[in-house]
Specification:
The structure holds three protein chains of three kinds. Chain A is an alpha/beta fold. Chain A has twelve helices and 23 strands. In chain A, 24% of the residues lie in helices and 19% in strands. Chain C is built from six helices and five strands; from the N terminus they run H-H-E-H-E-E-H-E-E-H-H. Chain C has helices at residues 14-17, 20-39, 83-87, 123-127, 160-163, 179-190; strands spanning 67-68, 93-99, 106-114, 133-134, 157-158. The model of chain C has no long low-confidence stretch (mean pLDDT 84). Classes of the chains: A alpha/beta, B mainly alpha, C alpha+beta.
Chain lengths: 483, 377, 191
């Protein structure tokens, strides 16, 4: 455990820790371009130069290992001058594109220029090196080589994280630029992370491009519900519209995020979205829908039909608890089933799970608690209530179903639901962590929170629930972060 | 019973009651003409006042309201104002006396409208042998009835302020009491010499007396025989109409006035009443002091001055007489407006002082001197 | 203690104290104005705004109605960088950006200014890196009851159609930060 002194403060470093990491842990910020906590150290941008006593030259903080007795200055006159000069070098060939560049607001060049630079360039505008602008790379990215400062974060990402090696630095000196190996192309499923880690506007997202300025957006923390991994995400939204989703790096689950997860927000305003409940081809508003479903169910109960309720791995714990409550206390049917999920395993070794349902673990806990059978004991039922994604795979006559859905489809009785961007819900991911989605935008007027809908139906049956979700979820055996 | 019998019965009744039926028709026609003209003039005055004041102050005045692209010098503002007044919220304060609060604008408007019934607005017309006088009620005491009714209007101002439950309104009412009652006295005192001179307490008598000439060529108008009376009456009329320079009752800049809580058509009642009052006093001034419908030197036989005589058609004469009183009324209405926009407001104590210390003694003196002269000659 | 102030009221002479002469004097003044204005209406100096406008003096025309300057080929200089919308203190500028095929890459698909919110501060002009938005039209925004009606129909809502225009007799400048791209685009267009 070497002790070092940074700007007059005595700090204790771990063995083999770089100066930059020690400073970061203790709240001293050192500017950087090429350094990224989840990638290997390259040390090529020279922005993190610090002064170390008894060393003749300035050293890069990201690659220098802290050793016993080091005295480091991060804000001396020499360091400041060095940073200014490095910035001037980086900006020699950088085009004056800020007005059309999408990085504005999260651009390290702009931020550091205002913090450390603020010097007029001594190089002429006309002599700037011109390179290729606007090159489409893969499905999701746009590359502008003029803006690139060759920090090689993207190259290291493709080498180390996805291990696909699509990107490399072509040519040398001031002609060097990021190139794509022609036989591969950027086809990996994590390509948009490159746009995130690019400190300048060289790689930008084709989907988010020119939609909004970053500084006009608000972020809300939530989770991704596209697979059992349950990545933590930031949702960037403004005026009731979601513009993009970025990962919220954490030590438990994810640093990165897959492209499919980022595009998931499009369901909210897609043309396939179910905005009204559809029963036998007629659109109904909220009030009418509750009435219709109530009529249907009460008639079925009078006729002593067999009603089955299928729990869904795609729905939150609250919604599933409400489904169990409906089956047990309102419909008084013994037929409550769950659906077996795929085996839970990270397919590609990074993030994507082979189980595509976000709440399989939560359902397992509920099944254990309430003693629910598996759908494999499948028999002939007269009415099946469930989530449309599940029922798709079962061989049940369409006419007999009451389904909940976000998307339009051909089932005769569809209840429009809010997506988990529009409502709160608790999920337990494959590691067993309990996580919650957040309400970010307003839903279309005639869509339901599933548990609200079920409670309204049970009110019509004159059954008034007396439990709260918090208490039930507390009893489930889930892990909490930090354990 | 057949239809013929009914028919013949009706004809019988018609022949029996012919004068009464004719009298009814005649009265309704006269009411239509007079009140139509008065209401129109009062309506036009609401915009006219703004337009005239604008011209006096080098402005253009209201000119925006239009129908089908025609602005008609801003005359459509009458319509616009009316619509606005009707559309406004009809507000009543919680602690107001509901009945009297509603009654106040009616009381201030109706007596003044009633006064017009006594006013002769023309001589007579002869149509196919039927003679009709341009006067709705011909009474020998019309002068006194006019002042009796017009002073009733003061109750409107009292009630409005007292019953609205507003302190500003109360102040306005108190001022109205003090100011208007005192000037009622002066007004009647100033008109008594005129009645003496023409020796008739009816308006038609006063007007026909003014048709004569003094020493052959000067019309025997009130302004010539009683200039002092004219000045005092005019001042009193200004006070009665509650307008600048005697507008302490309203006092827009400090207490807003007795109608501070009245909105919508209730307020419109007060405002319209003010303009009708202007028309009324313009007519009275022209009758008492400027010969009413008399055109100088015009009589039944035509224009006569000394020995020269030009015969005039009966209908042309009627039209000239109607025009005469109309022009005089409009001119005096305008003078009311000019005075308002020229003079600053009198101080409250100055108004009272002016009335009791100067106008009252002068009018009494005038009365005595006139009485002496009337008795002597 | 009660403070009193003695007013020096002017002592009126006889003619003044009977008011009549002074009233007539006052009436003469107002009547003079009345009759002159009645017969010579052109002497009234009122300007019937917004139908009539006085010409703006000096640099006042640099704080008049907004416009977006155009390039030589008629495309807007604006690249939808959002600087004006960001700095606008009354948040009256709404821009939707979109991608174009030409070198400049970005252009405003929607550009609206709500003049009923605008405070005419001119910060948008100073913020503009492309010298695109300017307030040099010399026109003054007219009064209106309808803020959501189009400007040309008497409202206060400026859209692309009203904003994107040349001034008459304007010499078209080339300055701007995205100049290289814009110039390249214009050169291509001329060839």
């Amino acid at each position: 455990m070497p002790k070092i002194n940074v700007d007059g403060k005595d700090l204790i470093a771990n063995d083999g820790e770089s100066i930059l990491n020690v400073c970061e842990r203790n709240g001293i910020y050192i500017p950087r371009y090429c350094y990224h906590p989840s990638l290997s150290v390259a040390g090529n941008c020279r922005m993190c130069l610090v002064e170390i006593e008894k060393m003749p030259k300035l050293q890069t903080a990201c690659s220098t290992i802290a050793s016993e007795g080091m005295v480091v200055k991060t804000d001396s006159e020499k360091v400041r001058k060095a940073r200014k000069d490095v910035l001037e070098f980086l900006l020699i060939n950088h085009p004056l594109d800020c007005s059309i560049c999408d990085q504005v607001g999260e651009c390290f060049l702009q931020d550091y220029y205002f913090t450390y630079g603020l010097r007029k360039s001594r190089f002429k505008l006309e002599n700037k090196n011109q390179k290729q602008k606007r090159r489409e790379v893969g499905k999701y990215l746009v590359l502008d080589n003029e803006r690139c400062i060759l920090c090689t974060r993207c190259v290291r990402f493709s080498n180390e994280v996805t291990k696909t090696d699509e990107l490399f630095v072509n040519s040398r000196g001031d002609r060097a630029f990021i190139d794509i190996s022609p036989e591969k192309g950027v086809t990996n499923k994590y390509s948009l992370n490159i746009a995130d880690i690019c400190p300048v506007g060289a790689f930008t997202s084709k989907d988010f491009r020119f939609k909004q300025r970053v500084y006009m957006l608000q972020t809300t923390k939530s989770i991704c519900t596209l697979c059992a991994t349950g990545c933590k995400i930031n949702i960037w939204h403004n005026n009731n519209t979601i513009y993009r989703i970025t990962p919220e790096p954490n030590i438990y689950t994810n640093t990165w995020m897959c492209d499919d997860g980022r595009m998931n927000y499009k369901i909210v305003n897609s043309s396939e979205r179910l905005t009204h409940s559809m029963i036998n081809g007629t659109e109904y508003n909220k009030r009418q829908t509750v009435k219709q479903v109530f009529n249907k169910l009460s008639k079925a109960m009078d006729d002593k039909l067999r009603i089955a309720v299928v729990l869904s791995n795609y729905l939150s714990i609250e919604d599933n608890i409400s489904l169990i409550y409906l089956a047990k206390n309102v419909l008084k049917t013994p037929y409550i089933f769950s659906i077996e999920s795929n085996q839970q395993k990270i397919e590609d070794g990074i993030l994507i799970n082979s189980d595509k349902s976000p709440n399989s673990n939560g359902i397992k806990l509920l099944v254990k608690k309430y003693g629910i059978k598996d759908i494999s004991e499948y028999a002939e039922y007269d009415i099946v209530i469930g989530f449309y994604e599940d029922i798709k795979n079962l061989r049940i006559s369409l006419v007999k179903t009451i389904l909940f859905s976000y998307k339009k489809s051909s089932y005769p009785c569809l209840i429009a639901l809010k997506t988990y961007f529009e409502t709160d819900g608790s999920f337990i991911n494959w590691q067993g962590y309990l996580r919650k989605t957040a309400k970010v935008v307003n839903s279309p007027e005639n869509t339901f929170d599933l548990h609200h809908f079920l409670m309204e139906v049970s009110h019509l049956f004159a059954v008034y629930p007396d439990f709260n979700f918090k208490g039930i979820i507390k009893d489930l055996k889930y892990k909490e972060e930090g354990q | 019973m057949s239809l013929d019998i009914i028919k013949s019965d009706l004809i019988q009744y018609f022949i029996i009651y012919k004068p009464q039926i004719f009298y009814l028709i005649e009265t309704f026609v006269k009411i239509g003409i007079l009140y139509g003209a008065v209401m129109t003039l009062a309506g036009v005055l609401t915009v006219g006042e703004r337009k005239l004041s604008a011209l006096m102050q080098d402005r253009v005045g209201p000119n925006r309201a239009y129908i089908l692209g025609f602005t008609l010098w801003g005359l459509f503002h009458v319509v616009a104002d009316g619509i606005k007044m009707i559309m406004k919220e009809d507000f009543m304060p919680k602690n107001a006396n509901k009945i009297l609060f509603t009654l106040a604008p009616i009381i201030s408007l109706v007596p003044i409208l009633f006064v017009f019934a006594f006013i002769p607005f023309g001589n007579y017309i002869n149509i196919f042998g039927y003679t009709a006088r341009f006067e709705i009620i011909d009474s020998n005491l019309s002068v006194f009835l006019i002042f009796a009714f017009s002073s009733l209007a003061v109750y409107g101002a009292f009630l409005a302020g007292f019953t609205s439950g507003n302190n500003w309104g109360l102040l306005g009412s108190i001022r109205a009491q003090a100011q208007m009652i005192s000037y009622e006295v002066v007004m009647v005192l100033s008109i008594l010499p005129v009645i003496m001179i023409y020796s008739s307490p009816s308006l038609s008598g006063i007007i026909s007396a003014q048709g004569e000439n003094i020493s052959g060529f000067v019309p025997k108008w009130g302004i010539i025989l009683q200039p002092l009376s004219f000045l005092i009456f005019f001042t009193a009329a200004l006070v009665e109409s509650k307008r600048a320079p005697f507008d302490v009752v309203e006092g827009e800049s400090e207490i807003i006035g007795y109608f501070v809580e009245h909105s919508s058509m209730r307020f419109a009642g007060f405002m319209f009443g003010e303009y009708i009052e202007i028309v009324l006093f313009s007519m009275l001034i022209s009758i008492f002091f400027f010969g009413g419908w008399q055109v100088p030197y015009l009589s039944d036989s035509g224009f006569t001055l000394g020995n020269i005589s030009i015969p005039v058609n009966h209908y042309i004469k009627v039209i000239l007489e109607l025009l005469s009183i109309s022009v005089k009324t409009v001119v005096f209405s305008c003078i009311f407006i000019f005075i308002r926009w020229t003079l600053p407001r009198f101080r409250y104590d100055h108004i009272t002082k002016l009335c009791w210390k100067y106008l009252m003694p002068i009018s009494v003196l005038n009365l005595v001197v006139t009485a002496f002269f009337v008795r002597a000659f | 203690m009660i403070r009193t102030k003695k007013l020096d009221e002017k002592k009126l002479n006889f003619w003044e104290s009977i008011y009549i002469v002074e009233i007539v004097k006052g009436l003469v003044v107002t009547m003079r104005h009345f009759f002159i204005n009645l017969f010579f209406p052109s002497r009234i100096i009122t300007v019937s705004y917004p139908e009539e406008n006085l010409p703006l003096i000096g640099n006042a025309k640099l704080k008049s109605l907004h416009r977006i300057k155009l390039r030589k080929d008629g495309s807007p200089k604006c690249v939808a960088c959002m600087m004006c919308a960001t700095i606008c203190p009354s948040k009256c500028i709404y821009i939707e950006a979109d991608e174009t095929e030409n070198y400049v890459e970005k252009y405003p698909k929607v550009f609206n200014i709500d003049m009923s919110k605008c405070v005419m501060c001119g910060l948008c002009v100073e913020a503009c890196p492309e010298d695109a938005i300017s307030m040099d039209t010399g026109e003054i925004v007219g009064g209106s009851y309808d803020r959501f009606r189009n400007y040309k129909n008497g409202g206060l809502f400026l859209t692309k159609n009203e904003l994107f225009r040349h001034l008459p007799h304007e010499t078209i400048s080339k300055s701007g930060a995205a100049n290289r791209l814009a110039n390249k685009y214009l050169e291509d267009k001329n060839d």
